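[step 3/7] inverse_fold.run input=structure_tokens len=207
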């Protein structure tokens, strides 16, 4: 009798230990803070009638994304969703005659397709999408110029990972590039050049 109970307990412990990790969930929301390197390019400054020293440089912002993972094929779980990323930088130059405070902002909203590798306890991914972004560079007290409001075709691509230390809460990282098309020349000024922004995000994921 005792041997039978012992064997049953050992068998149950083996079954628990042998359980596969949970699959990637159907639904995830990412909320992250971001940092972005805005360009310090004389061509960009010329497109807004600015001095190169007025361009802000590094900025910060936020990233929010929603994903669903409807099916898996072998080791890959396919995801679909959308992403909103807003980053901004403001620089007040050293007291130099003629230099103004300038605010630069990149805003992107678009769809996402992802390839995901791992389990519900934690997984990595590659993702990307094509949509439009706005890229504004506006001196303090000045109205936006047409290029600041133009919707520019943008390809975003990158990857990251999520680690679920708790059942519904994860720490997440995202490394992403936004390749933004040139803007249209306007008001006698040249168009802004094509540029690729590097954006790093860190925050939480909820499932």
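[step 3/7] decode complete -> sequence:
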């Amino acid at each position: 009798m005792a041997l039978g109970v012992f064997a049953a307990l050992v068998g149950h412990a083996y079954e628990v230990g042998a359980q596969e990790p949970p699959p990637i969930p159907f639904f995830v929301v990412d909320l992250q803070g971001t940092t972005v390197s805005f360009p310090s390019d004389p061509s960009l400054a010329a497109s807004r009638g600015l001095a190169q020293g007025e361009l802000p440089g590094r900025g910060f912002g936020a990233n929010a994304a929603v994903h669903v993972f409807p099916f898996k094929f072998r080791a890959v779980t396919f995801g679909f969703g959308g992403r909103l990323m807003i980053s901004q930088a403001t620089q007040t130059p050293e007291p130099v005659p003629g230099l103004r405070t300038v605010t630069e902002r990149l805003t992107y909203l678009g769809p996402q397709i992802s390839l995901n590798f791992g389990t519900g306890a934690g997984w990595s991914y590659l993702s990307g999408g094509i949509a439009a972004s706005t890229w504004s560079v506006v001196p303090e007290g000045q109205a936006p110029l047409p290029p600041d409001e133009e919707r520019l075709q943008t390809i975003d691509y990158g990857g990251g990972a999520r680690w679920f230390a708790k059942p519904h809460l994860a720490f997440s990282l995202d490394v992403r590039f936004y390749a933004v098309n040139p803007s249209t020349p306007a008001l006698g000024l040249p168009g802004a050049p094509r540029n690729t922004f590097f954006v790093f995000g860190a925050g939480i994921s909820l499932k």
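[step 4/7] annotate
The chain has one domain: 24-206.
Helices lie at 2-17, 42-47, 146-149.
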